[in-house]
Amino acid sequence: MSGYKNIWALVEVQGGQVKSIGLEMLVGGRRLADAVSEKLVAIVMGLDTKEAVKAAVSYGADQVIVLDGNDYGEYNTEGYTYALEQLINKYKPSAMLIGASINGRDLAPRLAARLKTGLAADCTGAEIDAATGTISWTRPAYGGNTMAIVETPEARPQLATVRASVYKRGEPDTQRSAEIIEESIELPAGIVRTSIIEKIAEVAEGIKLEDAEVVISGGRGVGNVENFEMLKELASILNGAVGASRAAVDAGWISHLYQVGQTGKTVSPKLYIACGMSGAIQHLAGMSGSDRVVAINRDPDAPIFEVADYGIVGSIKEVVPALIAEIKKLKA
Predict the structure, then answer these.
(1) Considering Cα of 78, then 71, then 11, then 199, what sign does the dihedral take?
(2) Contact by Cβ (8 Å): 42, 12
(3) CB-hemisphere CA count at 13 Å for 3?
(4) pLDDT (tens digit per residue) in 196-238
(5) Residue from 256, 223, 262, 252 nearest 242 by CA
(6) Torsion from C-alpha of 204, 210, 215, 218, nearest 10 degrees
(7) What is the 3-state secondary structure of 103-139?
(8) Could you tell me the strand order of the sheet in which 125-128 lies?
(9) DSSP element (H, E) containing 80
(10) How open is the CA angle 324-326-329, to the nearest 5 degrees?
(11) Domain extent listing, the chain
(12) 322 pLDDT exceeds 80?
């Protein structure tokens, strides 16, 4: 394993635009690379990647390996796996961070199997041993009821998918420079066995949940679709986004695009207001990075109050309208 070095981060590109989760992987990769005095290498794959390459450099990459072309304009499992396998066998990175996006969760296990290495999936943290280079990945286990430490001490590269919002992007440094390596890998005929016939976009309204500084989230205690309109109004006047627990999504009160938790999205806003939520550990796994948590619940013994900075015991039908009225007065 002595021939393996440097930390890689996959930067996803869609329609020429870099995805936020890829830049977050660079932030996490930068910490690991600095700890072992190695380079952070961004892997940028897509079509028209010029702006994505600039972004990768500004968020900490020492080196950027670029695969740009029609073969990579749309994500597909077979093509991306084949290309990354070739790159990894050529450059031999010590580790690679892949965002736990829909694409990342599809790509990583197949890539790990091809490389005959391990995979730590859906991670929420990472620490590296400076002496051995072995990374200890932290991830939820047993339905989120405990946290597991996953290591791959005898295989390289060390692969992991990391949840969105685990690493906060911060501000880019546009004065940075990096080495740019343009690679060209032609996909063998027949390796891509699927094609896109039609795209149907389901888009969440308002501010993107993962990027919001304020999140108003509703659980089973919200009660119905109509009561979610109150949460949307509160989110609107606070310039925030609406979130939901799995129970609320399963009840059909709101789209799965708004789900926060172990099986949903991870958020790390400055303010998280949990409305009618009991505080199940599966949900807490998705919002534990919030700076301030306010809980509103009728049950004074609800577990959510144990993690909240401020708690309000009461019905959301009374508390939320009162909050809306007071905030409107302050803004008047």
Answers:
(1) negative
(2) no
(3) 5
(4) 787 776 555 667 787 788 999 999 999 999 999 999 999 999 9
(5) 256
(6) 60
(7) HHHHHHHHHHHHHCCCEEEEECEEEECCCCCCEEEEE
(8) 125-128, 135-141, 146-150
(9) helix 77-91
(10) 110
(11) 7-183, 209-331
(12) yes
What one-letter code names the amino acid at 106?
Answer: D
What distance in Å separates the CA atoms of residue 178 and residue 331, rounded to the nearest whole number? 45
- Specify the fold of 209-331: Rossmann fold (3.40.50)
Residue 83 DSSP symbol: H
Assigned CATH for 7-183 = 3.40.50.620
- The residue type found at 126 is A
* CB half-sphere exposure, 7, CA atoms < 13 A: 29
What predicted TM-score, i.e. pTM, was given to this entire model? Answer: 0.75
**How far is the C-alpha of 168 from the C-alpha of 134, rounded, in Å?**
23
Structure tokens at 290: 């919030």
Rounded CA-CA distance 49/68 in Å is 6
Structural tokens at position 143: 């339905």
DSSP character string of 210-264: GG-SEEEEE-GGG-SHHHHHHHHHHHHHTT-EEEE-HHHHHTTSS-GGGBBSTTS
Helix (H, G, I), strand (E, B) or coil at 48: coil
Asked if residue 100 lies in contact with residue 125, where contact means CB atoms within 8 angstroms, the answer is no
Q: Do domains 7-183 and 209-331 have the same CATH topology?
A: yes
